[in-house]
Design goal:
7-stranded mixed β-sheet; globular; TIM Barrel; alpha/beta; single chain; two-stranded parallel ribbon; 15 helices
């Protein structure tokens, strides 16, 4: 349990914790759980660190910039001041031996170079404590925690664990062929990678002092012990039978270990797994992402209601105007809003409106 009593950038931290604890129990105190972010009144803006900052740059200046940026934001309602580090989307695979290849600097992206030619020769997976990307991230988390001490917290990482780790290390084409031609070797690979979720999570958790601050996942849901967002983006490429065989057991284990978590549900192609995802008991909340080129989030209201009808809460990104539409349609006990307001006053008015209309 978090031992901090307040945060310098969040004077009403304890009130936010009350709302988060109610959210995880699908209860309402006086309004739905709502994170409101706005420019802090009277403060000059400071840009946040670029995506993947720290992967190749000195670490402490990135931490200092993250704090400077966070200090220019009004963290209203249940928003917990945090910064989640990232060296790119395939960090788990890099920690297990894949190389990261970086694109042109202006695009700020990278990818794992597939490194598995033969599962029989490669397995089992090993987390080498001296792996350079693992050591660098642990060092980064420790520096962030030191710089943020008493002011904000380090957010947990987007891990891309379970089948997504295999995807990065083998390539999508080859993993799909493996599933068709040698499904039993994919079983072995999954049996090897799944147990690594816990030591990876805890290594980062303690390096970043989350045992003292509580945890904010990369989707910004907070719990005073631990939480995070789990996912399986590879689900869009496989059918229900393969999802049940490879992905679901891993997701169940991750959700059970975390106790409370959000599921990153990425795109319409993965909706074939709606029933399977919704039947995983420890997944509390769904972060629905419409996918590239999809219809706007607000046009997925029926799907959000369907998630709620299956007992899941939903993450809802919104504005001061659209939050009123969502609030009329959705169960306030099964939602958390992330509302970006143009001014601190507008953000305060959102919270007041929610209380008056709940």
């Amino acid at each position: 349990m978090a031992t901090i009593s307040t945060l310098g950038l969040k004077p009403d931290y304890q009130e936010a914790v009350r709302h988060w604890l109610a959210f995880w129990e699908q209860e309402v105190i006086d309004r739905p759980c709502c994170c409101v972010l706005a420019p802090r009144a009277g403060i000059e803006p400071v840009p946040p660190p670029a995506y993947m900052a720290g992967a190749r740059e000195p670490l402490r200046p990135v931490a200092e910039q993250a704090l400077a940026h966070a200090s220019t934001i009004w963290w209203g309602g249940d928003a917990i001041p945090h910064y989640a580090p990232s060296f790119g989307p395939d960090m788990m695979s890099a920690w297990l031996g894949a190389e990261l290849q970086f694109g042109p600097s202006e695009f700020r992206t990278n990818w794992a170079v597939p490194c598995v030619d033969d599962w029989d020769a490669f397995l089992p997976f090993r987390l080498d404590p001296e792996n350079r990307w693992w050591r660098r991230m642990l060092d980064f988390c420790a520096i962030l925690a030191e710089v943020f001490e008493g002011k904000m917290i380090v957010g947990h990482l987007d891990l891309h664990s379970n089948v997504d780790t295999l995807l990065a290390m083998r390539s999508g084409e080859m993993l799909c062929l493996d599933i068709m031609d040698r499904p039993e070797v994919v079983d072995r690979a999954m049996a090897s990678v799944r147990p690594l979720y816990r030591p990876v999570y805890e290594g980062l958790y303690y390096a970043a002092r989350m045992d003292r601050t509580g945890t904010c996942g990369w989707v910004p849901a907070y719990h005073p012990v631990r939480t995070n967002t789990i996912q399986c983006d590879f689900a869009a490429l496989i059918g229900p039978e393969q999802f049940r065989r490879y992905a679901r057991p891993a997701l169940e284990e991750e959700a059970e270990y975390l106790g409370h978590c959000v599921y990153h549900y990425d795109g319409p192609d993965a909706l074939v797994h709606f029933e399977e995802v919704c039947s995983i008991p420890r997944i509390d909340c769904i972060q629905w992402v419409p996918g590239a080129g999809g219809k706007p989030f607000i046009e997925w209201m029926d799907l959000l209601k369907a998630f709620q009808a299956r007992g899941k809460s939903v993450w809802v990104p919104c504005s001061p105007d659209t939050i009123k539409v969502f609030h009329r349609e959705l169960d306030p006990a099964k939602v958390f809003y992330v509302c970006h307001a143009p001014t601190q006053q507008a953000g305060e008015e959102v919270l007041k409106w929610l209380i008056e209309h709940t």
